[in-house]
């Protein structure tokens, strides 16, 4: 049995695990898993909270900068610190962000296709806003070092209440910036309108990031700390090059009393790794996926019970978690994700210990009260399911790059397709490679209802979905919202693949 006093975590400011001093010891065995615990000179670290930006005013204003931290890694700077803020907005509010690119003009960092040029911008993942400047435009809004961008987003009144996020999206350079930690959560308030009990239970925001430990001297120690099994995971033969952090901390402790109910909002902000999250022995009462409450399209089904949930890079789950029984040893972990023979190592590891009795009141938050009734969209899309696809996107790759329908994305590319706004479309995404890829499209959610040609028992509305190796997924795209007019993109959300060409333009007209 492991006492709560043994649990330690370490806050990771930016990245830089080389700055930790560990004294490690193996304490014992729990079930089939070797549990490695490390005593660190630092204090026990409970789950840190990232700073919040919120306002009762009609416009929320913040200044954000792209900087290099003292370790030379890219980071978002906000309010004098390199910890990205959580932006909490209400439907109907406006979000005004002054984004300064304060990165150096020359870089020693390497990006997907050569030395980084250090251009940057912001994408607002999952928000149903315009793809045109000054909103969610990743194509013409680009800041070179020294330049600023001014975003002014109108959060629609019918934006589903849930968890979204922002991150840089400069083609060719997005992987490096997100991998270094440039990502932050956006909460669209009002989810308690879909499930009133959420107003009465504490909320925790868990931003999971993957940290590159490939060149870290302490890589072996860090991998041990994450309790990565010695046996390989899946068909990948690659070495393990990433560990996950939660709100910037390596394996923090999350406090939850036996039987206590908490609302956990989990974001996979990793640039290029999947998580398959589970809390040992406790099912998730899932309330929302990819920011969309389950009740948004199905008022009579606001919850779904799942033992574990696969979250591709950029995926989110919001779920009620119940504290495990007194004395149990429990963790929030990611299971092994088999990424395929050409994929990256994505092994099981512990994300956070789940324990009772470590109080950290600052790491829970309260939602803002939203006036007005919940918005629903009862979309009847089932009759599109047996249609011939309106569009097929096939993912391929070779040693020269990554492609959609044989084409590598170029900044000057013509749109791959033009779509009339106001319609639903049946899309099929085909994966003709030997690794999994997450499909994502900007400004739009889709009904993901079939995998490898077989109807799923649990179709769901998502904005990012995994495409199995040598297989396909079938989606009903919701292009009905007139706000999406303009030039947009869809792409693989392994950002390294996006940077190397697995992206295409789509014109909504
Ligand atoms: Cu990919």
* Distinct bound molecules: copper (II) ion
CATH architecture of the largest domain: Sandwich
Helix content: under 10%
In angstroms, what separates the terminal alpha carbons?
61 Å
The main sheet comes to: 7 strands, mixed
CATH C-level class of the largest domain is Mainly Beta
Give your account of this protein's structure:
With about 500 residues, this protein is mostly beta strands. The chain folds into three domains: about 50-190, Sandwich (Immunoglobulin-like); about 200-360, Cupredoxins -  blue copper proteins (Immunoglobulin-like, Sandwich), CATH 2.60.40; about 380-509, Immunoglobulin-like (Sandwich), CATH 2.60.40.420. It is built from four helices and 38 strands. The chain is globular, with a radius of gyration of 22 Å. Bound molecules: copper (II) ion.
